[in-house]
Write a structure and sequence with these properties.
- The complex is a heterodimer.
- Chain A is α/β, with parallel strands linked by helices.
- Chain A folds into 2 domains: 126 residues, Glutathione S-transferase Yfyf (Class Pi), Chain A, domain 2 (Up-down Bundle); 142 residues, Rossmann fold (3-Layer(aba) Sandwich), CATH 3.40.50.
- Chain A contains 13 helices and 8 strands.
- In chain A, strand 5, helix 7 and strand 6 form a beta-alpha-beta unit.
- In chain A, helix 1 crosses helix 12.
- The longest helix of chain A has 18 residues.
- Chain A is globular.
- Chain B is built from 10 helices and no strands.
- Classes of the chains: A alpha/beta, B mainly alpha.
- The interface between A and B is large, with 66 and 69 residues.
- Bound molecules: iron/sulfur cluster (SF4) (3 copies).
């Protein structure tokens, strides 16, 4: 089968030795199995994330994304941009739309880009990897690739904020999106539809700057997953993954709780269900080991 | 920039409309309170979004621009998708924060305000974020003593991230960068110039 081609925007946090490098590894494995070819945007820059607003005014921030889109249009013409990071997807799509609706800003962005010989046409669709899975590939095709169903696992689908709002996945509600649960079921595991914290904010960048406030919210997410009998949490967002996973010891120390809840990416789940090794699924990147998944991978 | 408010004959709403990203939306707020009730960190803010919009219309310039509100916005977009008037609340919050920062009115010890600026400076250097340097700067932003305390507290997290190859101590020297850093800087410098011009032209 011919491979589907996408212009890939990996984002800073997925770089080698960065906090979601495990996401990139598992996403690449998942894409291999689904005949998706990711063509990295050459020399892409940071999108500015959500927190870039303090130093970056409107035009400088939009120009960051404009540079990436222009590079994509030049080097990977005709291909949709796909991002794995929720914040990268959001910033890029937001910038593209703002520049489409505001010709004066678009003109200024192009004047700035001309300094490096770049031009923005701004005709490129910008997708999150989850949209590619659900809209371009589809649950049925995904199901045909499952070699090791994740039977017996109970998984809380934690959608979080930015893969869900303000754009979200077409046809899904903001308050109770179903796609992650459906994906979990497609892989042969049990979802938890009554996981009431599925769209709760994890605190985003405030996990760094105001940890006490952020950890209070993370505690709520973990508690709900635990009380609903989850073996692990799955998420489509690198910020959610990191925040929900790595602060559990601190949360335990603060609240006298005893969380040891693995938090994995959907791509890790899929890589394992598709029959790939723990290494290829980046299970080795878990700070809190996902033992039940590792056991399935070891079969 | 100190007496910018005089240009607006003390009409703070007009000032916001001309200078704050998406500020022209503020007058559309119908004070229903949905945003305040939806904001995950609202309870920590001096003034939740609805109140901020009311204060802007009431001309409470200093109280708005010096407040710690806006800076605790996590960009969760809860408010945006729920607002019956479809105000781009998240962006107005960011715009207000940025404006307060530009005028030097942002609260000096608001940790997210500092972190947000560090993040921007970090990415402007080489076009990509260096998580390690950003983290170290963050932990030391309130001085050496507190920095070591925070670093110590975060030590186990750092070790966990290093063991799983999700943090690389070598990023402290060099680290990820664009190939065309020069072009990147030229583009961003031009964008900043044009931004400054655009704002100057909008002023009465
Ligand atoms: S949002 Fe994060 S990962 Fe995405 S480009 Fe920006 S800093 Fe990098
Ligand atoms: S939800 Fe919208 S209309 Fe209601 S108070 Fe907030 S900004 Fe105003
Ligand atoms: S986007 Fe910001 S202002 Fe809106 S609900 Fe979330 S934290 Fe509150």
């Amino acid at each position: 089968m011919a491979k589907r081609q996408y212009s890939f925007y990996p984002g800073c946090s997925s770089q080698k030795g960065a906090s979601s490098s495990n996401y990139l590894i598992s996403a690449q494995t998942m894409c291999e199995e689904l005949d998706i070819q990711l063509n990295e945007i050459p020399d892409w820059n940071c999108c500015g994330a959500s927190i870039g607003y303090a130093g970056g005014g409107e035009l400088p921030r939009l120009t960051l994304s404009a540079r990436n889109i222009a590079l994509s249009e030049q080097h990977n013409p005709g291909q949709s941009i796909v991002a794995t990071c929720a914040a990268c997807w959001l910033s890029t799509r937001e910038a593209a739309e703002r520049l489409q609706h505001n010709p004066a800003l678009a003109k200024d962005a192009n004047t700035a880009l001309a300094e490096a010989g770049l031009t923005l046409k701004n005709q490129t669709p910008i997708k999150h990897m989850v949209e590619v899975l659900i809209q371009d590939i589809g649950y049925d095709t995904i199901k045909t690739k499952v070699k090791r169903p994740l039977a017996g696992l109970k998984i809380a689908g934690y959608v979080g904020c930015q893969t869900n709002r303000p754009f979200g996945i077409a046809g899904e509600s903001f308050e109770n999106p179903q796609y992650l649960d459906r994906l979990i079921e497609t892989l042969g595991a049990d979802s938890i539809p009554q996981f009431e914290k599925k769209v709760q904010c994890c605190g985003g960048a405030l996990a760094f700057s105001e940890p006490a406030k952020s950890q209070e919210m993370i505690k709520g997410i973990l508690e709900s997953a635990h009380d609903n009998g989850a073996d692990l949490i799955v998420t489509p967002c690198p910020v959610c993954q990191m925040n929900a996973e790595v602060y559990q010891e601190q949360i335990n120390a603060t609240y006298g709780t005893n969380f040891k809840m693995p938090v994995v990416y959907y791509s890790t789940l899929m890589a394992i269900a598709f029959g790939r090794s723990a290494q290829d699924a980046a299970l080795t990147g878990q700070v809190i080991p996902a033992e039940k998944l590792a056991a399935i991978a070891g079969k | 920039m100190g007496d910018i408010s005089k240009n607006y004959r003390l009409n703070f709403l007009k000032e916001v409309e001309a200078n704050v990203e998406e500020g022209e939306w503020v007058k559309m707020c119908m004070q229903c309170g949905v945003c305040s009730g939806s904001c995950p960190l609202g309870k920590f803010w001096d003034h939740p979004p609805q109140e901020i919009f009311m204060m802007i219309r009431a001309g409470k310039r200093d109280a708005v621009l010096t407040s710690n509100a806006m800076w605790m916005c996590t960009s969760c977009y809860n408010c945006i998708v729920r607002c019956p008037r479809e105000l781009p609340i998240t962006h107005i919050m960011h715009g207000l924060a940025h404006y307060a920062q530009r005028l030097g009115l942002a609260p000096a010890h608001q940790p997210t305000a500092k972190f947000a600026q560090l993040f921007w400076n970090n990415l402007m250097k080489k076009g990509r974020v260096n998580e390690l340097k950003l983290g170290v700067k963050l932990y030391f932003m309130n001085g050496i003593g507190e920095g070591f305390k925070t670093s110590l507290k975060m030590k186990d997290i750092g070790l966990g991230m290093m063991k799983t190859k999700r943090m690389n101590p070598m990023e402290a020297i060099g680290g990820h960068a664009l190939e065309d850093v020069k072009g990147f800087h030229a583009v961003m410098q031009k964008a900043q110039e044009l931004e400054d011009q655009r704002l100057a032209n909008q002023r009465p």
